[in-house]
Every structure is written in C-alpha cells, then in structure tokens.
Amino acid sequence: LSGVTSVREAVTESISPQASANHILNYEITDASKLEFLCVTVILANDLSTDNNERCITLDKPYFLYDPYPNPASDLMNISWIADSTDPLSITMIDALGNQVMTTSLSSQQGLNSVKMLTDGLADGIYVMFLKYGSYKEIKRISIEH
C-alpha cells in the first residue's frame, strides 16, 4: 500500500491455470489520504511462470513513479512506474552543465512497469532526470558514480 505498509493474507482455494479468482482481504485502511497505489502479488507453490503474478493500480493520479535506484548508479539504474494506460514514459537526462545527454521513451502497459536503464555511457556526476507520462511531469536528481 503506497510502499508504506503491506498486508499479507494466505488464500487456500485452488486456482486453475488461466483462471481468475476473487478474494476480499479482511483489512481496513484507516488513513486513505496517504494511499497513492495498490499492488497485489500472488505467490503460488510450483508456479512455472511468475511473470504475471503482480498487478498494481494507481489511486489518485494516472501514474506513480518510484524513485529510480540505485542512486548513485554505476552501470544500470532501475526505473519502475505504475501506469493506468499504455502512454509512454519519456525520460530526458540533463548534466550539470545543462547539456541534454540522453533521451528515451519507454513503452508502458497498464499496471506495474520496470526497466533497467544503462548508465555506463554517462560520465560521473549529478544529473537531472525529467520524466513525462501523458501530461504529468516529474523531476528526479540522479548521481552517477562508476
């Protein structure tokens, strides 16, 4: 729940492959004002394909962007976001001198998205990362140390 708390509950009903199941958690959210997103992860015994075992939704805006990590980064940086549509996430990196050193557009799917962005081509230093999803924009400060 917005990275602040987690709820764990065991469900013992059987779920057949390609089937859906609904389960109501016995949990009350007392302060919903801090709730930005909700993710559900299903862990199944003997699961051969865990690629689709996590689903996330945003609650107060059409996306949620996790802080990129690690920060500082050396060769790779993980970027994760929750999207309500297939709009792309655009990323522009600006160095300390104001030069645009990288621009990329990442495709989105509804729900949780994650990519590993190569940073090995960037020089050591502080960068400003401009992120744009639809009409929403965010700025993150990133440090690169090889």
Q: Strand arrangement, largest sheet?
A: 6-5-8-9
Euclidean distance between termini CA atoms: 34 Å
CA-based shape: elongated
Helix content: under 10%
Largest sheet: 4 strands, antiparallel
Number of strands: 9
Global structural class = mainly beta
Radius of gyration: 18 Å
Mean pLDDT: 85
Low-confidence stretches: none
Q: How much of the polypeptide forms β-strand, as a percent range?
A: 35-45%
Count of helical stretches: 0
Return the string of H and E elements. Answer: EEEEEEEEE
Short structural summary:
By secondary structure, the chain is mostly beta strands.
Explain what you see.
The protein is 0% helix and 41% strand. By secondary structure, it is mainly beta. The chain is built from no helices and nine strands. The model has no long low-confidence stretch (mean pLDDT 85). The strands form three sheets. A four-stranded antiparallel beta sheet has the order 6-5-8-9, with no helix packed on it.
